[in-house]
Write a structure and sequence with these properties.
Blueprint (H helix, E strand, L loop, with lengths): L4 E3 L2 E3 L9 H12 L8 E5 L9 E2 L3 H17 L7 E5 L17 H10 L4 H11 L9 E3 L6 E3 L2 H12 L25 H8 L2 E6 L2 E7 L11 E3 L8 E3 L21 H11 L9 H6 L18
Antiparallel strand pairs: 1-2, 3-4, 3-5, 6-7, 8-9, 10-11
Length: about 300
């Protein structure tokens, strides 16, 4: 029985079953000690070990099994004494130890201790039950509400998701804004420079019914935008000064002054109507493809949505 862990803000007792797997053990310990699973460095010692001995590393399943065997071996020789596995945070401390500064009263640290000691074990337990996959035994999957595709959620993302739920930044039915929950975002559909060029509408400038210039709206990457347009109605010395920023006319357009809504606003509206569909997860991939406004949906190839 593993029943003790040291926290950076104090001492916490944690009771866990003997046959618990490493992934569940590691996740629960990180939640209890308020550590990031991706960067946590955990060590252990057994009760009765010498104080001057350094803790043993506990970072993978092999280390975990070795620690279990040491506990069981010590239990066989201990008649009445309880065997305790003591865990340590080997990384840098994130909170100042209580009373570490001499001459300071400890009452201030005691007041703030509850604020810095977050516990979202309840949220993590509920999330793991919600993600437990019936199709893939032993896995925790997020099922895309549109494609029904299963995306496995690993321990670090489970912990992060549970923490966001605890902080009120998301819910158990709304996934994180991460590539784990949107496989399409992993594919580089198009480069940023090409995206800007495709998203920029063509410009047709007319003067008295004569077309003067066909151009594409300059993007923010342009270092030397054209500053003037030559008119065929005048000689070469006559120039019509026209800043590029004002060339926002399109040929035969009936909605020159229309400001189209942002794609993010559309997805937010759909999410409020259908919260279980997970529309917000598609914002990043749509914007990266050039669909920043709703009118840009017409320019996207049909196979993109399949």
């Amino acid at each position: 029985m593993f029943n003790e862990a040291y926290h950076v803000t104090g001492r916490t007792t944690l009771h866990l079953p003997r046959d618990l797997g490493f992934a569940d053990f590691y996740s629960r310990v990180c939640v209890c000690m308020d550590l990031d699973p991706q960067s946590a460095r955990i060590g252990y010692k057994l009760s009765g070990d010498r104080v001057r001995d350094a803790p043993n590393q506990l970072s993978n399943a092999v280390d975990y099994q070795f620690a279990v065997n040491k506990v069981l071996e010590k239990v066989r020789h201990a008649h009445s004494r309880e065997v305790v596995l003591v865990l340590f945070n080997l990384g840098p401390a994130t909170h100042a130890a209580e009373g570490s500064v001499r001459g300071k009263k400890r009452t201030h640290n005691k007041v703030n201790a509850a604020d810095t000691n977050l516990s979202f074990n309840k949220e993590l337990h509920e999330l793991r039950e919600h993600l437990e996959c019936q199709k893939h035994h032993g896995c925790h999957c997020y099922i895309d509400p549109i494609t029904s595709e299963h995306n496995e959620v690993d321990i670090p993302n489970q912990t992060l998701w549970a923490k966001k739920i605890f902080l009120g930044k998301t819910t158990i039915k709304r996934p994180l804004n991460s590539k784990v929950f949107d496989p399409k975002a992993k594919k580089a559909w198009i480069t940023s420079s090409t995206t800007a060029a495709l998203a920029a509408p063509p410009i047709h400038l007319h003067l008295n019914g004569i077309q003067l210039l066909n151009a594409t709206a300059a993007t923010t990457q342009s270092s030397t935008p054209p500053s003037c347009v030559h008119s065929p109605l005048h000689n070469s010395s006559s120039v019509i000064n026209q800043p590029v920023e004002t060339l926002n006319l399109t040929e035969d357009s009936d909605d020159d002054n229309v400001i189209y809504p942002l794609t993010g606003d559309l997805l937010a509206e759909l999410d409020s109507l259908f919260p279980d569909a997970g529309y917000l997860q598609y914002e990043d991939v749509l914007v990266s493809t050039g669909v920043a406004h709703v009118n840009a949906f017409a320019t996207v190839a049909p196979h993109f949505f399949t």
